[in-house]
Structures are given as structure tokens and as C-alpha cells.
Amino acid sequence: MDIAPIQTAAPLAHTGTTTNRPEAGFADLLGRAIGQLQAISDTADQKVNALATGQDVELHDVMLAVEAESLAISLATQVRNKAVEAYQEVFRMQI
Predict the structure, then answer these.
(1) What share of residues in the chain are helix, strand, coil (percent, to 5)?
(2) How far apart are the C-alpha atoms of 6 and 40, rounded to whole Å?
(3) Hey, what long-range contacts does 70-79 have (CB within 8 A, 24 or more apart)?
(4) Region 34-39 average pLDDT
(5) What pTM does this model have?
């Protein structure tokens, strides 16, 4: 089993040049995650609506989409809970 290195093999050199474009931060990561959660939810809603209106859709596809949405929402809730706990822990620290 190969484990990928955390950093690149070559050391990072500081060239003195700066770029105007900042790297993706936590807000960008959070925005993308919420977008993915919304996409999963929209897909499940479309499949449920298609089943309810009598369109040709397989029941197992609908159930898989609904279960995937449920798991995604549960994961998002747990991540939010851990983030709130971490924030509260940092807030309680004495400097």
C-alpha cells in the first residue's frame, strides 16, 4: 500500500514574486461543499417529483438518490457540529 507524501518532493523556493490571486481559502471550500450538497438535494427532488408525476423512473434510482441526500445532509450536520465545537474550544482558550 503506497502512501502519498504530504508535500512535494522538491522544496518550495521563495522567488520574491507575489500573485494577485489568493489561493482558495476556507470560504471557497465551504461554498463548493454547500453547492455540492445543493446539487445532491436537487437531484433527489427531481427524481422524487418524476416518480410522483408518473414519469418513467426506476424506484431504486429514486431511493438511492434520497438515501444519498440523507447521508450528505447527515455528514454536513456532523461537520457543522464539529466546526462549532472547535470554535467554542478556541473561544474558551486563555491567551
Answers:
(1) 65, 0, 35
(2) 30
(3) 72/36, 72/37, 72/40, 72/41, 73/37, 73/41, 76/33, 76/37
(4) 94
(5) 0.67
